[in-house]
Predict the structure.
Amino acid sequence: MSAFHPTRLAVALVASLAFGLLPTTNAQAQDDVFAFMPDGGRTLMQGLIDGGLTPEIQAEIAGQTLSAEGWATYLEGKRADSPAVSELDEYQTQTLASYLSYNMPLLEGSELPWDGRDMALARCQSCHIITVVVTQERTREAWLGTMHKPSHIEVPLTEPEREALADYLVLNAGIPIDDIPPALRAGGASY
Ligand code: HEC
């Protein structure tokens, strides 16, 4: 892979968005029931691009590696230049910063990778309802502890994906039970 070319990266990012990133229509159909779950970084990034983020800033984002703290600082610095960025609240900014720290730079032609919300929906519902997960308020270490228990070690997520999911949950879980649709409350834990 040759050196990143900012303009081509921006085009790749825009093109991948234009062609649609949601992995399945099934995920789209589920969106209503799971609307209470805050957006992950993939959706937030897509929202920025749809919201008019300039190609220059898109290229800058697609082309650099930063820590989550570095990305948060970067995004704060773009608030004044970009209305889309200025609309992110603090949790969204942190969620996007975390996502970017795992997923940038973005290789030319690649789609925006899945985010913590996508992972939770795809991997954390087969043995118990998602409510068991998203109502918990925990530290990163505690989330990683749960994900490394014998009951969870075979969940098909790589180590970096577990960390990305943990970071999403630290910022976005702890959702009050009253905000969870009744259909997802019935019976509580099913394990
Ligand atoms: C293969 C089945 C399975 C899948 C998939 C699964 N869980 Fe669980 N989960 C369990 C079982 C069994 C328990 C109860 C026993 C235990 O806690 O180990 C549990 C309990 C929990 C609990 C409450 C108890 C605790 O340890 O904190 C949380 C939180 C949790 N799971 C989170 C998750 C997350 C996050 C995912 C997705 C990454 C997930 N689960 C996917 C089987 C599963």
Observations:
- The chain has two domains: 6-27+39-103, 116-184.
